[in-house]
Each structure stands twice: as C-alpha cells, then as structure tokens.
C-alpha cells in the first residue's frame, strides 16, 4: 500500500494550526517528518502518532495550547534570562485568541530582538483561564509583561 505524505501546509490545515507552528513541532522533534527535496513531508502514520501523543498529554482536558521557541533554551555568555508564569482568570475563548495573537505579534515583530525567547500559552476552556509561560531576556520580559498588563486593563475596562 502506498504511503500518504502531507506538506506542512496540509498538516496545518488538518490540525487547524498555523504552518509556522507545524514547522516548530518538526524542528523540536515533536512531529516526525522527512525532507523531500527542499520541503518537509509528514506521513499519515507520523501525523496519527503526533495527534495521539498530543491528546494523551492533554489528559482529556479541554484546552488550546501552543509554543513558540525561537532558539534552543541555552544561557550564553552569562546573560540574564528570566522566566514567568502568568495566570489570567475569567477569560473567554475569544479574549484568549485576541490576547495570544497580540502577544505573538509583539514577539515576532521585533526583527530578531527576541531570538532567544519563548512563549507558551494555554487556555483552559472549562475554567475560562489562560496561562502564559514566558522565558527570555530582561527586555523581552519587560515588553511582554507590559503588553499583558495593557491588554488585561483594556479587557477590564471593556467589561465594566
């Protein structure tokens, strides 16, 4: 039987994720893929294994989650690195999507300033809670915390 291969774009469409997220899964080793020419291809078997591992790791919890890792998490040259976990309560799914998209835009729009930074956001639908994990330099942390502060104050102002 002939093996079915998918492009990164096709996998992204199947999983309803951005193609860069799929590329990050491949680069981090979470999703097995093979190079065919200049493009990555994912077999149906590897896609099924990836979906199963994600489902089992979420332990039947209804949530959305994604991570962006720009470079390996290595402390180089004695530079200061900071981590932070932010919990936001009473967040509806549409607010989660808005906040996460804006945080990603801030992070990705800095022309390489935040290359060693990472962000992971998870939404707990049943609890209407958002958790944000940040790791990076002082500049990154300052910018992201200020942005979260502005966004949550804006959400609070819209809700009253």
From TrEMBL:
Q: What's one GO MF term for it?
A: DNA binding
Q: Which InterPro entries does the protein's record reference? A: DNA-bd_dom_put_sf (IPR009061), HTH_17 (IPR041657), SinI_DNA-bd (IPR010093)
According to the entry, every stretch annotated as the Helix-turn-helix domain falls at 5-54
Pfam families per UniProt = HTH_17
The protein, known as = Excisionase family DNA binding protein
């Amino acid at each position: 039987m002939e093996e079915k291969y998918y492009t990164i774009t096709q996998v992204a469409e199947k999983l309803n994720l951005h193609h860069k997220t799929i590329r990050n899964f491949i680069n981090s080793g979470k999703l097995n893929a093979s190079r065919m020419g200049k493009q990555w291809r994912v077999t149906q078997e590897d896609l099924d294994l990836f979906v199963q591992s994600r489902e089992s790791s979420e332990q039947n919890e209804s949530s959305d989650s994604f991570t962006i890792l720009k470079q390996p998490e290595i402390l180089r040259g004695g530079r200061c690195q900071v981590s932070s976990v932010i919990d936001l309560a009473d967040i509806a799914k549409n607010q989660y999507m808005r906040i996460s998209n804006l945080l990603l835009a801030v992070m990705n729009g800095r022309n390489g300033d935040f290359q060693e930074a990472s962000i992971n956001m998870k939404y707990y639908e049943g609890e209407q809670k958002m958790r944000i994990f940040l790791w990076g330099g002082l500049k990154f942390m300052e910018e992201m915390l200020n942005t979260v502060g502005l966004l949550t104050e804006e959400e609070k102002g819209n809700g009253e």
